[in-house]
Write the structure tokens for this entry.
Amino acid sequence: MYEVFRRNAVGNLILVCAGAIPGYWVTVFTVDTIGRKTIQFMGFTMLTILFVVIGFAYDKLLKHNGALLALYVLAQFFFNFGPNATTFIVPGECFPTRYRSTSHGISAASGKIGAIIAQVVFGPLRQRGAPPGSTESPWLNHVMEIFALFMLCGLFTTFLIPETKRKTLEELAGEVPGTANYDPGSRSGAYKTNSDLDNGSAEMGIFAGTVGVRRLLKMFDKYNIKTTWFIPGHSLDTFREECEMIRDAGHEIGLHGYSHENPTKMNLEQQHAIMDKTYKQLRDFCGKPPRGVVAPWWESSKEGAELMMKYGVEYDHSFSHHDCLPYYLRVGDTWTKIDYSKHPSHWMKPLEPGTETGFVEIPSSWSQDDLPPMLFIKNAPNSHGWVNTRDVADLWRDRFDYFYREYDDFCYTVTIHPDVSGQPQVILMLERLIEYINTHDGVEWVKMEDICDDFKMKNRPVKGALLPAEHGAILENPDIELQKA
């Protein structure tokens, strides 16, 4: 009996060393480059093929020395360079934070239940048809065929899991601004309608698009100020009456995506579809084409900037290369990121300038945005919401004072959202700030299109810069090429 167990142990050890351990280490070295989903898909594919071959050619394989053993070693390899590893890694990453530990536990327990079923059901099943007391396994080939079916099912379920490589747990859970699942609201009160958001997120958007908008319009009318609103298409469709009030009060309306989508997360085709939809939507709603755009999350792409210029959009308000002076935007700057796995000479290189354009940039600033300090967002690690409005006002006032002292001409842009600045304490803060700024000589409240016109009148794009096309030009000629100065 001892000799039987010893031979089994040695045989299993050899098989593990030949197949399972190499498969494990290949996964370790490739899981963050190839990706979890790809490895799992490839593993299930290979295992399906291997089990089909073993099951349907079992008798023939027995006649060839080493053939069955080789296939078994390959199966061990692709178990570990495949679902054995990924089905443990992915459940610990893909679930939302509040459910991650529980869901990972359920996933692990499911694996153990599967192992028990394999032993209890398929162990005896392989000996079906064998004489009583025999150690023969006449049904082993059919068990392999059943396993092949399970591997095929695993292959198809792999399509349902997300790819989690090179993403933090916070990104995967949608807890980081700019990620696909995270969207606390837009500049006109748009809110996500995904089923994974709770009612509080919807309530915040509804407050913004109704109560907040009306309070801000009342305040602007009190001080006779015309402003620029960047309104997502979703908000325009959802809060039609309030958007009509904005338009009819003489405020400018610019582009801001449809559902506040992050442009850097989309391909050019997706960006084009959203731009085409929202451009036509605003043109029809306002009776004239939109002249300006704000990229959701203030994140844009080189392709996105060129696309906007092909629609004839004249200015953008998404970048911070300056903090108080308009400028012509340069797109496509590149630089080498630090890679600690390489020699420093790899990244010790200067920035490479991109393409000059005639696209006017009216600078934005997180320091003059109401949302970061004054809006509470559940599950956002950097959320505030209860910052004293007088502290925020001091910051904004100091920035104005510096610009007023140092520059003869400057633009002072403040980004406000109805879900934030529609709140009573923020309305009062804005009124105090407006009244303070109004005590200074030479100050004029204008829309962003006025800033754009003034800048273009005084400044010309550099020679060779890409110029915006005529308004809506791409609608007439989808293959339009931008002209150069």
